[in-house]
């Protein structure tokens, strides 16, 4: 590597310093141009802001003048509104006074019209009453004549009808008595056969009345003979009460209660709510009816 002399070093140093000075000068010139441009822009903006400020001041002054005018006109309007309100209030008072006067006049007019209508109606009613009185007298005479004829007709027809009704009523009572006695015999047979473990199903009154008819079957004759033997033998219902004395319990209900072991007033009176539910499920009666039986049985058991 060749040696560097002092002269070369000086020249290199001078060149470096010259480049630095030239760059500084160029940079200073460029900074001056930028500063001048920036000052120009700031001046434009300042002028624009001053113009806008002046415009706003002028506009504000105009608005203040308008506000003053509006305030003056509002004050005048308020005064005018108060005057109008006072006049309107007076007009309302005058209107109310006139309405009261009109109402009084109308009431008097209606009272006079009502009195006139009442008098007209009274006169019309009196005329109609006279006419209706004559008509009713004629109608009553006609009715009396017709009733007398009908009474004569019924006097001839009524005795046979009464006799027929009495005969049928006697037949119905006799049949009902026969049905009750037959059902009591069946209940006695059921109790008598219970010791032989024989089950007898409950029979309603309609089927029981049909069963009382004569039968040509030999087995039916044998059963009838056995039933007679049981009925004519020793009593089968010692200690039982006639539950049919309780209102609402007929032969069918008494038989169904007997199937459940309830045969006395005391047993019905001692029924619990659980027993009522059980009987309600087993029989076609409501729980309220069964509770009513219980209350009646308490009185009968005393």
CATH fold-level label of the domain at 241-302: DNA polymerase, domain 1
Dominant shape:
elongated
Percent of residues in beta strands: under 5%
Low-confidence stretches: 194-237
Secondary structure: elements and pairs:
Blueprint lengths: L5 H189 L10 H7 L6 H15 L18 H9 L5 H5 L3 H10 L4 H15 L1
Helix pairs in contact: 1-4
Give structural notes.
By secondary structure, the chain is mostly helical. The chain has a domain at 241-302: DNA polymerase, domain 1 (Orthogonal Bundle). The chain is 83% helix and 0% strand. Helix 1 (6-194) packs across helix 4 (251-259). The longest helix is centred in the N-terminal third of the chain and has 189 residues, at 6-194. Residues 194-237 have low confidence and may be disordered.
Concise summary:
This protein has 302 residues and is mostly helical.
Features:
0% strand; mainly alpha; 302 residues; DNA polymerase, domain 1
């Amino acid at each position: 590597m060749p040696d560097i002399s002092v002269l070369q070093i000086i020249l290199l140093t001078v060149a470096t310093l010259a480049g630095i000075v030239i760059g500084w000068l160029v940079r200073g010139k460029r900074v001056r141009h930028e500063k001048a441009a920036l000052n120009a822009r700031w001046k434009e903006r300042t002028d624009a802001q001053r113009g806008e400020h002046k415009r706003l001041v002028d506009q504000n002054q105009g608005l203040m003048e308008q506000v003053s005018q509006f305030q003056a006109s509002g004050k005048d309007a308020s005064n005018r509104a108060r005057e109008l309100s006072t006049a309107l209030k007076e007009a309302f008072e005058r209107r109310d006074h006139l309405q009261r006067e009109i109402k009084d006049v109308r009431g008097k007019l209606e009272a006079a019209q009502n009195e006139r209508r009442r008098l007209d109606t009274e006169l019309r009613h009196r005329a109609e009453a006279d006419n209706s009185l004559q008509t009713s007298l004629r109608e009553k005479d006609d009715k009396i004549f017709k009733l007398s004829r009908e009474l004569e007709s019924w006097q001839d027809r009524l005795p046979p009808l009464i006799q027929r009704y009495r005969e049928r009523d006697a037949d119905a009572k006799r049949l009902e008595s026969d049905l009750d006695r037959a059902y009591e015999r069946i209940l006695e047979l059921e109790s008598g056969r219970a010791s032989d473990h024989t089950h007898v199903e409950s029979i309603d009154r309609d089927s029981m009345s049909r069963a009382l008819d004569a039968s040509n079957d030999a087995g039916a004759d044998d059963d009838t003979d056995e039933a007679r033997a049981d009925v004519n033998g020793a009593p089968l219902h010692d200690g039982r009460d006639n539950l049919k004395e309780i209102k609402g319990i007929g032969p069918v209900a008494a038989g169904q209660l007997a199937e459940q072991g309830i045969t006395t007033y005391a047993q019905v009176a001692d029924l619990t709510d659980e027993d009522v539910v059980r009987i309600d499920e087993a029989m076609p009666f409501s729980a309220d009816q069964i509770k009513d039986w219980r209350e009646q049985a308490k009185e009968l058991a005393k």
